[in-house]
Specification:
By secondary structure, the protein is mainly beta. The protein is built from four helices and 22 strands.
Length: 490
């Protein structure tokens, strides 16, 4: 009596005898195998190995027995045609899963699971040709494209992902058009995704050494005068009074005790030079942004409108000072693509005055003076570049005077106040990127050479560090008259 496993063995042998694909099949033809005889017991159901197809590709399958009829679970996923009793034509129509049932003349059924994946052979060829990376592997899983393997740097990884996204978007667009042409009113098509499983061979951490130098020079000249004089003629008294002082603490006064006349002069000259230097060290992963700030924070009131119509005041945080933002990208061959954006901001002492209707006082809001730049450079490990030209040169001149009297030569200085101020500053950034590498084993620390002093060295000699221990004295060599067995006892 025949066993019921013979139909499964027969189908396995038939799958090995599958002919090459009609259009674009990737499998090589196998020699035709002789299948064992199928069971004559009617009504048996067997499971066969699954079959994988590519979307839009077709193939032929030869059966080890004569098929009486076939049935496909989802005709929109795959199309199967019985060309002759022992040969099937299979076409992958859309991505998905279905199954195929084949009945023989004895009414025995064989079930074959069918999976249709995206055709990524074209994408694989384009990646190998355009990106020149042999270790990149493109596979598919349902509606997703999986990109795996190793690339040299992050730039090539972005190129591979860009090609995969372009391929996926085109595939999704084509399927949507086909769906609309078929009469799908909604046109709902699942968009394929790109799953990134790439690994980058280059080091992925960058250390940025930044030197910030700023030289600021301020020059101020101020001169003011206050004059008071009176003269009486008959019943008339004539008075001249002007107060155009600058408010400086240094002043020269002259008073007349008899008639009360006075003259006050104040003047100031200041010259300041400030040098600011910061040397931060920042680390970041390739492709990630890092920032540094040496400064402070200030809170600015901001009006917020509620749903009820009433407005509330909230505080918004604002940073100022010397800051650097950078994004490194490690390239092939040890090159580093660096996007740097330095910024210098400071509080303006004058601020912005705001007055509102119905409010008796005037609000003074802080304002900022900002200097910033943004650039992209490519350097090798250890090379430096400088960003300069962030120069500020402000000149302020104020003159307050009495009409006509302040314009008189020489004596007009008593009836006017002059204020001259100039601010000059220049900022320079020197940036050096370095690839971060692991330390070698048994590396030496700066404190390894420290020897703790003994109590005698510390208290009696006043030393903070002890002396290194002497090396062990070499063993004495055998003296003359000695033998290897011992001393000569004479």
């Amino acid at each position: 009596m025949k066993t019921c496993n013979q139909p499964l063995l027969a189908l396995l042998a038939g799958l090995l005898a599958t002919t090459p694909a009609v259009t674009g099949a990737a499998d090589q033809p196998h020699p035709k195998a002789k299948a064992p005889a199928r069971s004559s017991d009617a009504g048996h159901v067997e499971l066969a190995p699954a079959v994988r197809l590519s979307e839009g590709k077709s193939t032929l399958m030869r059966l080890p027995f004569a098929a009486a009829r076939i049935s496909v679970g989802s005709p929109e996923v795959a199309d199967v045609i019985l060309i002759k009793p022992t040969e099937l034509y299979m076409l992958g129509k859309s991505v998905g899963n279905t199954n195929l049932i084949v009945w023989d003349r004895e009414n025995n059924a064989t079930i074959i699971d069918m999976t249709v994946d995206m055709n990524v052979a074209t994408l694989q060829a384009q990646v190998s040709q355009l990106v020149d990376e042999k270790d990149v592997k493109i596979t598919s899983a349902a509606e997703s494209v999986i990109v795996s393997g190793t690339v040299a740097d992050a730039v090539k990884a972005e190129r591979v992902l860009a090609l995969a996204n372009a391929y996926v978007q085109r595939s999704s667009k084509d399927k949507k058009e086909d769906s609309n042409n078929a009469g799908n009113e909604k046109g709902l098509v699942l968009s394929p995704r790109v799953i990134n499983m790439l690994s980058i061979a280059a080091p992925q951490q960058v250390m940025l050494e930044v030197k910030v130098a700023e030289v600021s020079k301020t020059l101020t000249d101020q001169l003011g005068a206050s004059l008071g004089a009176s003269h009486t003629t008959g019943s008339w008294t004539y008075t001249v009074l002007s107060n155009l002082l600058t408010g400086n603490p240094s002043a020269v006064d002259a008073f007349n005790r008899k008639n009360g006349n006075f003259l006050t002069l104040d003047a100031q000259k200041s010259d300041g030079l400030v040098k600011v230097l910061a040397e931060p060290t920042i680390m970041a992963i390739s492709g990630q942004e890092a920032n540094f700030l040496a400064g402070g924070k200030i809170f600015i009131p901001v009006a917020q409108n509620n749903n009820g119509g009433a407005s509330t005041i909230t505080l918004e945080e604002k940073e100022f000072g010397v800051g650097v933002r950078f994004t490194p990208t490690v390239l092939e061959g040890g090159r580093i693509n660096l996007k740097v954006a330095p910024e210098v901001s400071e509080l303006n002492k004058e601020g912005i005055g705001i007055s509102a209707t119905g409010v008796s006082t005037t609000a003074l809001l802080p304002s900022f003076t900002t200097r910033k730049a943004s650039t992209v450079v490519q350097l090798f490990d250890g090379q430096s570049f400088a960003i300069g030209g962030l120069i500020k040169n402000n000149v302020t001149t104020n003159i307050k005077a009495l009409p006509f009297l302040g314009e008189v030569p020489v004596l007009g200085a008593l009836f006017r106040s002059s204020d001259f101020q100039t601010d000059r500053s220049e900022l320079v950034f020197i940036i050096t990127p370095r690839l971060v590498k692991p330390l070698p084993p048994n590396y030496r620390l700066p404190t390894d050479g420290y020897i703790e002093p003994s109590r005698g060295e510390f208290f009696l000699q006043g030393k903070l560090e002890g002396k290194p221990k002497d090396q062990a004295a070499p063993a004495p060599t055998a003296a003359a008259g000695q033998s290897s067995g011992g001393f000569d006892m004479k």
